[in-house]
Design goal:
By secondary structure, this protein is of the alpha/beta class. The protein contains 7 helices and 7 strands, in the order E-H-E-H-E-H-E-H-E-H-E-H-H-E. GO terms for molecular function: oxidoreductase activity, acting on NAD(P)H, oxygen as acceptor; oxidoreductase activity, acting on the CH-OH group of donors, NAD or NADP as acceptor.
């Protein structure tokens, strides 16, 4: 396998992932699978989904489009040792890893006074702890291999402001924590040539947001909030991730890219 061009050979002018091996947590479906599609469509050598669940028809369809390039490894992001085992397997099979997308997440919307301790812990264990563990495993591996790696977190527009229709204080707090984590990890790991950034999606059409377009006043909401009057397709997020994972972003670290269509509801 050819190693990606080093920054010392001059700035990279094209946004592509040629020869890169990318791991994405929670990519068996939804946003993660859309990111995988975009990575493969932009030249990634291999993409690995690190997910606790089983793959479905959408994953298999993408795998058939990119034979021998898309793989799934089962792991629980709340248990750092299972992420380490997954990344070790990726390196053993592919010889390297160049990017980690910390995407696995959970959501639950209800009034703050109604959340149980168990529900809060479930959200934070995946969204916060799981993201931190995934990033740390990736960073340790990049350092060990001498790779100028890129870590991209999936944050959320809920980290900036609440969803007025269905608020979730624990969810928003977990995603705000991710954005803060990005700044600190970027500062700590710059010495190792590791870049750390995030993407904040707005409302995206996935299995978790099926209810949004079913609201009886959805069309009225869109007129009121303005912006691009629809939900985003998962693939429309991919450009932000591809850029941040690519060598074209070699001087980009500690930032968040909102992908929200300027829509006022998030």
């Amino acid at each position: 396998m050819t190693s990606p061009p080093e920054a010392s050979s001059g700035p990279i002018k094209t946004i592509q992932l040629e020869d890169k091996v990318i791991a994405i947590t929670g990519a068996n479906r939804g946003i993660g699978l859309g990111i995988a599609d975009c990575c493969l469509s932009n030249g990634a050598s291999k993409v690995y989904s690190i997910d606790i669940g089983d793959v479905g028809d959408d994953f298999n369809a993408l795998s058939s489009r990119f034979p021998n390039q898309l793989f799934a490894i089962q792991a629980d992001v709340t248990k750092e040792e299972t992420i380490q085992a997954a990344v070790d397997k990726i390196v053993q099979e592919s010889g390297a890893i160049h990017g980690m997308v910390c995407n696995a997440g959970r959501t639950k919307h209800k009034a703050a006074l109604d959340f149980t301790t168990e529900e809060i812990e479930q959200l934070w264990s995946v969204n916060l702890y799981g993201s931190f563990y995934s990033a740390r495993v990736a960073a340790r591996t990049f350092i060990k291999l001498g790779v100028k790696g890129s870590i991209v977190f999936t944050a959320s527009m809920a980290s900036y402001r609440p969803n007025k229709r269905v608020p979730s204080a624990p969810y928003g707090a977990s995603k705000a924590g991710i954005r803060n984590m990005v700044h600190t990890l970027a500062m700590e790991w710059a010495q190792y040539n590791i870049r750390v950034n995030s993407v904040s999606p707005g409302l995206v059409k996935t299995a978790m947001t099926y209810w949004v377009e079913q609201q009886p006043d959805w069309e009225q909401q869109l007129k009121y909030y303005g912006g691009i009057p629809r939900l985003a397709e998962v693939e429309e997020l991919g450009g932000a991730y591809v850029y941040l994972l690519s060598d074209a972003a070699s001087y980009t670290t500690s930032i968040d890219i909102p992908v929200n269509g300027v829509i006022g509801i998030c």
